[in-house]
């Protein structure tokens, strides 16, 4: 039986063993808690930072118009100004002052610059003095003519009483005719002197450079102290212009269309223009004219396209893409096609990776969604797919960086 007792003793739980195991449990629990805290910290710091945003809710909208016109041809071109002038002086002279800067709006007839006019004003004063001298000569001859006429009258009366000879009367008459001729000559001199004054006054006025039409100064080419000339003088020290003015109301688009597709374009055809600087902005446009000549080297035909809406963001020489649209071809009596969607402010739609996207706040995080733009209405955009009415779309400015999955907190109040 001693072997059986030894086996039973081995199966018994000793008090010292249970106490040692009890001492290890707090350490195990502490290590586990530290692991959880470290994992939470790693998750916290690896996730995008918290951002405060304002949101807008899309509004349900629908249009009862016809289906949008499809494009029959796309072409690229540039914005040009039909009224553009590099203003210069009619005469060669030294610039005394320039009164314009780039970006300044000017009105028709406004003074742009002045040239040195000291010599021309001196010549104007000399011409006026000559005019005054000629007028004094006229008055002198008029006095002599008046005296000659009185002499003729006296001799004629004496002749009637046989107190004077006929030769005396004839001599007095000749003197009157001579003074009349002198008077006419002096009056002609006055007219010539007056024309000389007007001519010299015009030369002085030409030294003041004025705007030929209203517009915006886009280039300033001269400074005070430089010489300016209407023709190139060589040497590189003489300017040929003061500044360049553009009439912003005359902006239009000029595109070169391949002559193989020019039959798709016609005058007064509707079009849509998209500036390279604003890819999300579609501007209504219309064909002004198809220039009736082709470029044999490039095999293209020039087409003029006009904007139907003016805006300060449209600038000369900007690159632009033009979509020539087909005219309405809806059948008479057919019901109009209804297009439904939601309306959002244009500023909330972003252009990322070549597509239109918006950021939607869902459960405290951002979701980036691609959207389909159906129509643009001034400062609003109709979205036909990608977002629904009632969702919270972030209204941050396009330059504010947002990331998919970023944690956000919604600020209540009107969106900026």
Summarize the model shown.
The protein contains 4 helices and 26 strands. By secondary structure, it is of the alpha+beta class. A 6-stranded antiparallel beta barrel has the order 4-14-17-16-15-18. It has a 5-stranded mixed sheet with strand order 9-8-6-11-12, with no helix packed on it.
Query: SSE string, helix = H, strand = E?
Result: HHEEEEEEEEHHEEEEEEEEEEEEEEEEEE
What is the share of helical residues?
A: 25-40%
CATH architecture of the largest domain: Beta Barrel
In total, the number of strands is 26
Largest sheet: 6 strands, antiparallel, barrel
Domain count: the total is 5
Largest beta sheet: strand ordering: 4-14-17-16-15-18
CATH homologous superfamily classification of the largest domain: Efflux pump adaptor protein, beta barrel domain
CATH class of the largest domain equals: Mainly Beta
Global mean pLDDT:
80
Basic shape: elongated
Radius of gyration: 46 Å
Briefly note the structural class of the backbone: alpha+beta
- State the low-pLDDT regions, or none: 63-67, 329-338
The proportion of strand residues reads: 25-35%
Count the helices. How many? Answer: 4
CATH domain topology of the largest domain: Elongation Factor Tu (Ef-tu), domain 3
Compute the separation of the termini in Å.
94 Å
